[in-house]
What we know:
The chain has helices spanning 5-22, 54-61, 76-85, 89-92, 97-101, 114-120, 170-183, 233-237, 243-246, 260-295, 327-330, 356-364, 378-381, 470-486; strands at residues 29-35, 64-66, 69-70, 124-130, 142-146, 156-159, 162-165, 191-196, 302-308, 334-337, 345-347, 351-352, 392-397, 402-405, 408-411, 428-433, 436-441, 447-452. By secondary structure, it is an alpha/beta fold. It folds into two domains: 5-208 and 267-388, 3-Layer(aba) Sandwich (Alkaline Phosphatase, subunit A), CATH 3.40.720; 393-486, Arylsulfatase, C-terminal domain, CATH 3.30.1120. The protein has a ten-stranded mixed sheet with strand order 7-6-5-4-8-1-9-10-2-11, with helices on both faces. The two termini are 22 Å apart. Calcium ion is lined by residues 36-37, 76, 309-310.
Amino acid sequence: MRPTRRQALQSSLALAASACNWRRVSRPNILFVMTDDHASGHLGCYGNRIVKTPHMDRLAAEGTRFDNAFVTNSLCAPSRATVLTGAYSHIHGIRGNSEAKNAVENMDPKIPTYPQLLQAAGYATAIAGKWHLSHDPVGFDTWRVLPGQGDYFNPTFIENGTRKKYEGYATDVTTDFALDFLKQQTAAKPWCLVYQHKAPHRPFLPPPRLARQFEKIDIPEPPTFNDAYETRKVAREAEDMRFDVSLEGDYKDLPKGLDAAAKKKWLYQRFVKDYYGAIQAIDENLGRVLGYLDQQKMTDDTLIIYTSDNGFFVGDHGWYDKRFMYEPSLRVPMIVRAPGGRKGAAHELMTLNIDIAPTILEYAGVPVAPTMQGTSMRPLINGAAPVDWRKSIYYSYYENSWVLSGKGLEARADPGFQFFTPHRIGPHRGVRTATHKLIHYYAEGDYWELFHLERDPNELNNLYGQPGNEAVTAGLKAELERLRGHYRDT
Ligand SMILES: [Ca+2]
């Protein structure tokens, strides 16, 4: 008989608890750093020459930079739950942000998270910063989190259940809390700190000290800045994803009388400069944490991971935000500095955010939970390229596509409901290989997109249905079905 989920959780926790007894080698500390909406092309170590990220770059120089790291559902709450559980949205239960807020879909409490398993195995655990799930944090000895998105300035935090307002800038305050936890640690126990910033999420607000540093330069526009969305019906309909349509209200100092092209340029320069200022504040604060680890001689005994909850369109395709399976949104920075890992390495194999929990648990010597669907990146971090590593990735985006009815969770079909109103990108799933991507928008008719990523890395030319692509399309459709079965998304 298959164990129930509760039995599976209890058995995982028991295994984790026993792991600390039998394991003799010393266990590393864990510093997991996650930011919100930080796109992978916008760090120095990923080739950006404008934004200054010396501490993120240091981690890459002393560790491994993953050049094909992706998310399974490009949205805040689902991605956070995926990182915690190592499982896809349909397993942990959080498919969208709005659903989480309305408590239509909550995280399944029976699905174990890596902090719970580490805590049961004897780790001291804490979270500081953004949480963004509808339930209180579990698996943490201590937690200080922002309610929902939180505020950039003078933010309220919830500290182990009690709300309190703090003076200052959220990124700095979050780091103060992270350092408070680190300063309480002793050699008696390894620790795991989940250090998650709300920045650089919209409204892109840098601290005043970093607000004006890019005033005298022009940020280059991405090659798809003036995308006309030819061959891509859904992209064309997603008008509210365009920053020149949706960000105008964020900037009261937008000059009057600009024509459409000039307004678009002004808004782009303004929002990207603010975005970069917010990223640099994260980097400065990461430097404070790394400096403390250095001072305490803990750096080499700590597994350090830097990533973002999802990618972002930083003007790419004329857009801001994420959601779509297109590269700027699907792709995230992923840097790992690990005890015994290679230094200054880059890796091409495709990793997913479901791999984070298994990686952390393997370094800690704690067995993964049966519900975890990812694979530990440790061999890659040590320089291997396993021949059986995944050759394709599966993506599934849902927001606003489900409702809770008397029959449970059902696909949304209410008359008059429009997917393509603000942030309601139609649900879609897809498969990506090293060379191609196939996307299926299954709720708005039966619309497909096929891209040849080697010839068309900007995904401008939808080849679906064009002669000569029959074989590759059939192969990708079969692979998409195989992955749905493999991840039990049926
Ligand atoms: Ca996000």
